[in-house]
Design brief:
The two termini are 59 Å apart. The protein is of the alpha+beta class. Strands 6-9-10-24-23-22-19-12 form an 8-stranded mixed sheet, sandwiched between helices. Strands 1-2-3-5-4 form a 5-stranded mixed beta barrel. Among the domains are: 10-102, OB fold (Dihydrolipoamide Acetyltransferase, E2P), CATH 2.40.50; 295-416, Gyrase A, domain 2, CATH 3.30.1360. The relative contact order is 0.11. The protein contains 16 helices and 24 strands.
């Protein structure tokens, strides 16, 4: 049956249709009255088209952003009026009939073409209008294309797409749950899944060899530029009878292929195999477990060297150093010192410059004995024009400050590789960590990870020395994925949770399905879950993750368009057995 609104979308209108009568539909983007003849810029999802109205009656009642259907004849434009900005720039449609399909009853809250310049709160309240902006819409179209490609990649590698439940049980997985009250079971609650963690492991126990899904995950966390509050999506996958290296190969294949296909033209993408850094090595060399490898600067440890010097402020402390070869003015050093003090909370920033004659110049030069200066030059490969910065503090604090300073130097000196996507793996994370205040031992990362050394390590080693088969994929300083070889052994699971303060009864109550399943021949399995939102954010070079989500929450965690969270009726509360307290 013929479509009564259009027989072509605007993207299909071309010079091949000159002289033919067509019907198109879309939104009125702009109206230009040239006295006796008017021009309407018509827009749909596929393109833009100029419509000429020589019969002024056709324009009556037409306003911007109305949806209309127009019937007319495709004509060639005069050459001097070509518009090279759009694919239809050499043609136009002379309107013969106009039908208004959707009227505009009130003033627009912002100009569609410049909506990205509007305050975010207003954009999100009227997101359906913001999405009419071509740049905003293109991000969502791009997202759809990336997800379709990811699905095809996984299917081609033999993975089966399986959906897992949204209403599930609350379990301690590192973040706050969103909980949902049960109407039928008084005082009981469902939880929205922080990740499909237990379900994908249960699928492995069930005998599915390779699972994946584009999984929605729900965590009651505060927003950041690279994290959407409430809901986000992962390319979640799991493999039975798999090792860490098997997972690495899949991650490399799917991410390299995706970034090579969708990255900006000319972009450099890391080829497999990705470089692998242990957590300990990453914290030393980069001061973070999310290193940006586009930055050539590296951090070194000089703690032992400064124990031999007379600078008491560095004695007994971890000393990290960063060398950069670039001209730096007095003003540069003053601004960097201000950054160190105000942004990082450091007491100051020591540095040395290597002059043309090979001597040092800088605030801590006098604290380094002459007989040790040669050793420092040799150890750090210092040459004239180098400046080396020093950070001294407790080990973790020194690493974090050095990492932040490395990032700042990379940016201020414009050292970052352009149009590049540099991937790496970070692995060998500590299995456990000690809470500074309570001194209690807890899981560092994922409680379902397999400890390196298995049950023997759990029984015999200091928990803080045990490493886990856990790993992250990092791209350009952004954590894209976390994963692990899973703990599939009931005895190991019991002991690991015991160390973290969970008794057997708690384990059965909180993770009952997994605990029971592991008693029936669970296979070794492993997986990971690259973040879809962050992936697309990187590919589109957007600084705010909300720019690549169709209907995002505001940073406050509110849906400003639908007014969520909102109030419910007293009847709804009673049905769910809930009483709201002040």
């Amino acid at each position: 049956m013929k479509n009564i609104y259009r027989d072509h979308n605007i993207g299909e209108i071309s010079e091949s249709l000159i002289g033919e009568t067509v019907r198109v539909a879309g939104w009125v983007e702009n109206i230009r009255d040239h006295g006796g003849v008017s021009f309407v810029d018509l827009r749909d999802m596929y393109g833009e088209l100029q419509v000429v109205m020589r019969d002024t009656a056709l324009l009556e009642g037409i306003a911007r952003e109305m949806s209309v259907s127009i019937e007319g004849i495709v004509e060639k434009r005069d050459e001097e009026t070509y518009n090279p900005r759009i694919p239809t720039g050499t043609i136009e449609v002379e309107a013969k009939k106009v039908d208004v399909l959707g009227k505009v009853y009130k003033q627009l809250p912002f100009e569609i073409m410049t909506s990205k310049e509007t305050r975010e709160e207003v954009r999100l309240k009227y997101r359906y209008l913001d999405l009419r902006n071509k740049k905003v819409k293109d991000n969502i179209i791009f997202r759809s294309q990336v997800i379709a490609f990811l699905r095809q990649q996984m299917t081609d590698m033999g993975f089966m797409e399986i959906q897992t439940p949204i209403l599930t049980a609350s379990s301690p997985e590192g973040a706050r749950d969103y909980i949902v009250p049960s109407r039928r079971f008084k005082g009981k609650f469902y939880a929205l899944p922080q990740a499909p963690q237990q379900f994908k492991q249960l699928l492995m126990v069930a005998g599915f060899d390779k699972y994946f899904q584009i999984a929605p995950c729900f965590r009651d966390e505060d927003a950041r530029a690279d994290r959407s509050p409430g809901e986000f999506y992962q390319l979640d996958f799991e493999m039975a009878f798999a090792t860490q290296e098997d997972v690495f190969k899949v991650g490399e294949q799917v991410l390299t292929a995706t970034f090579e296909k969708f990255a900006p033209e000319g972009a450099v993408v890391t080829k497999a195999p990705y470089p692998i850094y242990s957590y300990k090595q990453a914290m030393l060399e980069f001061g973070t477990d999310k290193p940006d490898l586009r930055n050539p600067l590296r951090i070194t440890d000089l703690s032992d060297f400064f124990e031999k010097c007379t600078f008491k402020a560095f004695h007994g402390r971890t000393v990290r150093a960063i060398k950069a070869h670039a001209p730096m003015s007095k003003g540069f050093h003053e601004k960097l010192e201000k950054f160190a003090r105000n942004d990082l909370g450091m007491g100051g920033l020591g540095y040395l410059e290597v002059l043309e004659d090979g001597t040092f110049k800088g605030p801590i030069d006098k604290f380094i004995p002459d007989e040790l200066k040669g050793e420092l030059k040799e150890r750090e490969n210092l040459i004239p024009g180098d400046t080396i910065f020093f950070i001294a503090d407790k080990e973790m604090r020194a690493a974090q400050c050095a990492g932040a300073l490395r990032n700042e130097l990379g940016a201020r000196l414009d050292l970052l590789e352009k149009n590049a996507f540099r991937f790496c793996y970070i692995n060998d994370f500590p299995m456990f960590e000690e809470d500074e205040e309570s001194k209690k031992i807890g899981f560092t990362h994922n409680p379902f990870s397999m400890p390196q050394g298995g049950l023997e390590a759990l029984n015999e080693k200091d928990p803080l020395e045990i490493l886990a088969y856990q790993y992250d994929i990092v791209c350009n300083g952004v954590e894209l994925s976390s994963g692990a070889v899973r703990n599939h052994d009931m005895e190991i699971m019991e002991k690991a949770f015991e160390i973290a303060g969970y008794d057997k009864q708690t384990l059965e109550n909180k993770f009952g399905a997994l605990y029971q399943a592991f008693q029936f021949g669970a296979p070794p399995h492993a997986g990971m879950a690259p973040g879809v939102d962050r992936m697309i954010m990187l590919l589109k070079n957007e600084e705010n993750i909300r720019e690549i989500i169709a209907f995002p929450m505001a940073g406050s965690g509110q849906d400003l368009m639908c007014n969520a969270p909102g109030e419910v009726t007293e009847l709804q509360l009673r049905e769910a057995h809930i009483k709201v307290r002040d």
